[in-house]
Amino acid sequence: MSVNFDNLDNIQIDVLREIGNIGSGNAATALAKMLNKRVNMDVPQVKVLQFQEVSDILGGAEIPVVGLLLRVTGDISGSIMFILEKKAAGVLVNILMGKPLDEIVVFDEIAISALKEVGNILAGSYLSALSTLTNLNILPSVPELAIDMAGAIISVPAIEFGKLGDSVLFIETEFSEGSTKVVGNFFLVPDIDSYEVLLKALGVAN
């Protein structure tokens, strides 16, 4: 039987959920330091999805989104995607910049740099949590940012990184400041050869 995320039971999903919780806690702390103000983050859901389900989670292939793509290297390899609806990304930029939340955002160099920094913090926080639980050395690359339709964004890792596994770890990430909430979608997409390494390290595979 091939080792992949599809074979996980509830206990193993709980371990992955813990990665989401620890990672979001670390990320919230790092963002608060960066912004010098409190940022709340929650992880409403952690799921294992089929790769082809990703665009459905995002609301369909035609939805305009902002996507951050990072390569993962070290003891496992694969890619990370952090994807926000374009409108939500604008609200997040305004939160980061301390601007009125309904202000129209132009995705200029400053806005893109702020979003990349959030992507860096999130990826670093989640991978650090994963590293701690697995004792694996896992490193993120510098993020690349793209603004496009969801279908186009998620095709990038599939094309760029060759054959990916069928399953991805999905961590829904909710930022809030006051009553304003921004939902982002974080996906860890291991390369096929990395599934076994990752699951063995989590104490899941034999």
From TrEMBL:
Q: Which domain of life is it from?
A: Bacteria
GO MF term set: hydrolase activity
Q: Which organism is it from?
A: Acetivibrio thermocellus (strain ATCC 27405 / DSM 1237 / JCM 9322 / NBRC 103400 / NCIMB 10682 / NRRL B-4536 / VPI 7372)
* InterPro entries, per the entry: CheC, CheC-like_sf, CheZ_family_phosphatases
The processes (GO biological process) annotated in the record are:
chemotaxis
| Domain CheC-like protein, first and last residues per copy | 12-47, 111-145
Give the UniProt keywords, A-Z. Answer: Chemotaxis, Hydrolase
Q: What is this protein called?
A: CheC, inhibitor of MCP methylation
Which Pfam family is one of those matched by this entry? CheC
